[in-house]
Write a structure and sequence with these properties.
Elements: H1 3-9, H2 17-34, H3 41-44, H4 52-75, H5 82-86, E1 106-114, E2 118-125, E3 131-137, H6 143-162, E4 171-177, E5 180-186, H7 193-200, H8 205-223, E6 237-240, E7 245-248, H9 253-257, H10 281-297, H11 307-316, H12 330-339, H13 350-371, E8 382-389, E9 395-397, E10 419-424, E11 428-435, E12 439-446, E13 452-456, E14 463-465, E15 471-477, E16 483-492, H14 500-506, H15 514-529, E17 537-547
Parallel strand pairs: 10-17
Antiparallel strand pairs: 1-2, 2-3, 3-5, 4-5, 6-7, 8-9, 8-11, 11-15, 12-13, 12-14, 12-16, 16-17
Helix pairs in contact: 8-10, 8-13, 10-12, 12-13, 13-15, 14-15
Length: 551
């Protein structure tokens, strides 16, 4: 029966063309989910591009309904003796197609996904009443090859099971059952970032950079244990929608399970040397850069119809001006290009890549405070004053300049570039703030690696500033490390909803790095500021280009 016939039965008008397209989209979604396939929204709606936005909204609603239904099913199971107390028979709705490799321990509920080397099932831990993921490993090759791969997997599972990192999917066990092997893993409800991008479109640079910086720190912890990943890609980064956190999974699976040990991974996210069996730490850096490129643009950096043609494109590198990067801050694009360098030795080491990414992210988060200002607040003037001490002991104001932009950017998505002050190691500088209006003031510094410091106030009480009277913040000598920093001041008519010193304490557990916590602090700072009316606050940002004496 057609959709219009159903509507007629309910005394509803006929469906519009868009409604019919969306109804077909839901049918396709359900069919692909039953087959365990990821949904490609753009492909399904290629004949109706005008419906993509409505389709994205619809899929978001469907996704929420699925998560709600899964939650209800998870927590609504009857106790084992409930039916006997009622004295009535019940109907079994068990799907005979679902495997049950560990009866009484894990109850398999549905297929989550399937790849070339594994299938992933959602299961319920019968003893702890929590969801877990069961990954069936598909061993390939001859018996000796399978034994070698299994031994390597067991060793990696032991190492990963001992790692307690918030951005690594926990490994609980590697167990045999019915001539198969299963990894028992932490279940992450949001699916992969690959699915999220294909369903809803590219992420913002703030989201994508934070996810990759976080999983990159997890990858660095694994590297320090002597392990590589070998298959970093958006499909191997899972998203926890409740915490809005990303977790890295599938360490080494492609390399261990492939029947071609000289070339393992996913071609669209592989470094050129990995095609020839030379994957190492630089190949993991390439994978992170390629993954971040996909998250921010919705496309892999290079694509081609064949493996050979793909390698040729990778060897050529990105074009000098890539329109896909127009919505990315210029500094972030430069880092992506460095991570995608053709030669492994031209890529920054993982630790340097991550420190640079985290530093850029946190400094750019500070820059976005400027983009939130409006022309309607022109009556409020807020200035950061930087002076350099001369030989006469007098402090002389430092001139500021505007750095040149490389290529046209989408200024609706990219924060404005702040004014820049060049300083050198050993110089003594004075920082002051001047405001046209009396109010409350907070001054922060974001260092080269992204660490965040509260410069004013220096106590738990809110800081204040008088109108038209410079407020001294700090006199300091420039000391290593050199690099780019951000200095930013926030003026508000009344105290911020969350006190600045509390932001630094609430950001994240102390087990995380200072730079990790700084990202969360800056995000909370923005949320705190945006609780105020636009006319009640103002922000100004200044870039400190700290150079050593040899530059």
């Amino acid at each position: 029966m057609s959709i219009n016939a159903d509507l007629a039965r309910w005394n509803e008008p006929p469906a519009t063309v868009e409604e019919e397209v969306l109804a077909d989209l839901v049918d396709a979604l359900l069919a692909q989910q039953r087959r365990g396939e990821a949904l490609n929204l753009v492909e399904l709606l290629q004949r109706h591009p005008e419906c993509v936005r409505a389709g994205q909204d619809l899929l978001t609603v469907v996704d929420c309904l699925h998560q709600f239904a899964a939650s209800v099913l998870e927590y609504s199971e009857l106790p084992e003796d409930q039916t006997s107390r009622q004295g009535t028979a019940t109907t079994s709705w068990e799907d005979p197609a679902l495997p049950q490799p560990f009866p009484g321990e894990y109850h398999v509920q549905q297929l989550l996904g399937e790849g070339g080397f594994s299938k992933v099932w959602l299961a319920q831990d019968c003893h702890l009443a929590i969801p877990v993921a069961l990954k069936t490993l598909l061993l390939q090759g001859d018996a000796q090859r399978q034994r070698t791969a299994l031994a390597a997997l067991q060793n990696e599972a032991r190492v990963l099971a001992r790692l307690d990192h918030p951005h690594i999917v926990r490994v609980f066990a590697l167990r045999p059952a019915n001539n198969d092997y299963y990894l028992i893993l932490q279940y992450v409800a949001g699916g992969s970032l690959d699915q999220r991008v294909r369903r809803s479109g590219p992420l913002t640079w703030e989201q994508g950079a934070r996810y990759v910086a976080d999983v990159g720190e997890a990858l660095l912890a694994v590297h320090r244990q002597g392990l590589l990943h070998r298959d970093i890609k958006p499909a191997n980064i899972l998203w926890d929608p409740l915490k809005d956190e990303a977790l890295l999974t599938d360490f080494g699976l492609a390399a261990r399970l492939s029947d071609d040990p000289t070339s393992a991974g996913t071609p669209l996210f592989m470094a050129l040397e990995a095609f020839h069996g030379q994957g190492g730490a630089p190949a993991d850096v390439y994978g992170l850069a390629a993954t971040l490129f996909f998250l921010l643009t919705g496309q892999p950096p290079f694509a081609a119809p064949s493996r050979r043609a793909l390698q040729q494109k990778i060897a050529q590198g990105l074009p000098a001006s890539d329109p896909r990067c127009a919505s990315l801050p210029e500094a972030l694009e430069r880092l992506l290009r460095a991570g995608l360098a053709v030669q492994p030795e031209d890529r920054p080491p993982l630790e340097v890549f991550l420190a640079t990414l985290r530093g850029l992210l946190n400094q750019l988060l500070a820059d976005t405070l400027m983009s939130r200002t409006t022309s309607g607040r022109a009556a409020i003037t807020l200035r950061l004053l930087v002076s350099r001490q001369e030989a006469t002991q007098r402090f002389v104001p430092v001139a500021t300049t505007h750095p040149q932009q490389g290529q046209t950017r989408d200024m609706k998505k990219v924060p404005p570039t702040p004014e820049r002050v060049v300083l050198r190691t050993g110089e003594r500088v004075r920082i002051e703030v001047l405001s046209s209006h009396a109010g409350y003031l907070s001054v922060f510094n974001v260092g080269p690696t992204g660490n965040l410091h509260l410069l004013y106030p220096d106590s738990g009480t809110p800081g204040t500033i008088e109108a038209a009277r410079p407020l001294p913040i700090v006199d300091v000598e420039m000391t290593p490390p050199a690099g780019h920093e951000r200095l930013f001041a926030l003026w508000s008519e009344r105290p911020l909803p969350v006190e600045p010193d509390r932001l630094l304490q609430l950001a994240a557990p102390a087990t995380q790095s200072r730079e990790y916590r700084a990202t969360r602090s800056l995000e909370q700072l923005q949320d705190s500021v945006l609780q105020l009316a636009p006319e009640h606050w103002q922000a100004v940002v200044l870039e400190l280009d700290h150079q050593n004496n040899l530059q």
